[in-house]
Design goal:
Elements (H helix, E strand, L loop, with lengths): L1 H10 L1 H19 L3 H26 L7 H37 L4 E11 L4 E5 L12 E3 L4 E8 L4 E5 L7 E5 L4 E7 L4 E7 L9 E4 L11 E10 L5 E8 L8 E5 L5 H10 L2
Antiparallel strand pairs: 1-2, 1-12, 2-5, 3-4, 3-12, 4-5, 6-7, 6-9, 7-8, 8-11, 9-10, 10-11
Length: about 280
């Protein structure tokens, strides 16, 4: 063992001497509090940090990194989570508005959720998740907190088919609120229209339209929409009024059914007119 140590020291005595002297020098330097020694220590530490960073950067080239596809997948997952949170926020606002509306309404209301939207060019129907088990009947109006959506058309035990404002077969007796002018609202495949209103009436853009006293299908004074545009007929004697509905029919997800039992006899007559 001693021979091995002697041989090692003999072969590498210069290196051993260098290491020993370096350790002694650094020890003395670290204990020195003179300004020159402090500057030297600061320079040495900074130099070591730079060299260490360069060494780490060089070795990191050969280390495996997360793949681009994995990062994209994680971004997609985060996007979906964020979108879900936004949807929850929008639905929360809608439900809060509906709760507030329910508290102030004089009508008995049944909350429901749209579970299917069957929308064609001239036929807009929803299916909602309440039915005869909740005492829903054919002919009951369906609304949101903004305004009228449609009417219950067919009812089963747990579900109801709703004929919406965007169904061309639905005709609604309405009133222009400000001037108390009556009309019939229909969907022409593109817009909600009140046809053949005399141009002598003081109809203005932005006038509110609501359900009329003359309809047995809907209770009076349910908001429908506002007049968006006036289109004169050929002879300039009559207007066709384009109505923008308060309820966003395409985006609605939560609704109320107004539990107003219509007259079966009159209701059947009016519902037959809409077929």
């Amino acid at each position: 063992m001693l021979n091995l140590i002697r041989r090692f020291v003999g072969n590498f005595k210069e290196y051993v001497l260098f290491v020993v002297l370096s350790v002694i020098s650094l020890s003395i330097l670290s204990a020195n509090e003179k300004p020159q020694a402090k500057h030297l220590k600061t320079f040495a530490i900074a130099s070591f940090a730079v060299l260490n960073q360069l060494a780490n950067s060089f070795t990191s080239i050969f280390q495996p990194n997360p793949s681009v596809e994995e990062l994209k997948a994680e971004n997609a997952r985060l996007m979906l989570e964020l979108n879900k949170l936004r949807q929850y926020g929008l639905e929360n606002e809608e439900l809060r508005s509906m709760i507030s509306f329910k508290d102030t309404s004089k009508f008995p209301l049944v909350p429901a959720k749209v579970i299917s939207k069957l929308v064609a060019k001239t036929e807009g129907n929803f299916i909602i998740n309440v039915g005869a088990n909740e005492q829903i009947q054919k002919g009951m109006p369906v609304i949101t907190s903004q305004g009228l959506v449609g009417i219950a058309s067919e009812v089963s035990g747990n579900f109801t088919l709703v004929k919406t404002l965007t169904n061309s077969m639905l005709s609604i007796a309405v009133t222009i609120q400000r001037i108390n002018v009556q009309g019939i609202l229909n969907y022409d495949g593109t817009n909600l229209i009140i046809k053949n209103v005399p141009t002598t009436y003081d109809v203005q853009i932005g006038d509110r339209v609501e359900t009329s006293d003359f309809s047995s299908l809907f209770p009076p004074s349910v908001p429908v929409g506002v007049i968006q545009k006036k289109e004169s007929n050929v002879y300039g004697l009559l207007h066709n009024l384009v109505i923008k509905p308060f309820a966003d029919i395409a985006a609605v997800n939560n609704v109320f059914v107004i539990k107003v039992v219509p007259s079966k006899e009159i209701n059947n007559l009016e519902m037959n007119l809409m077929k």
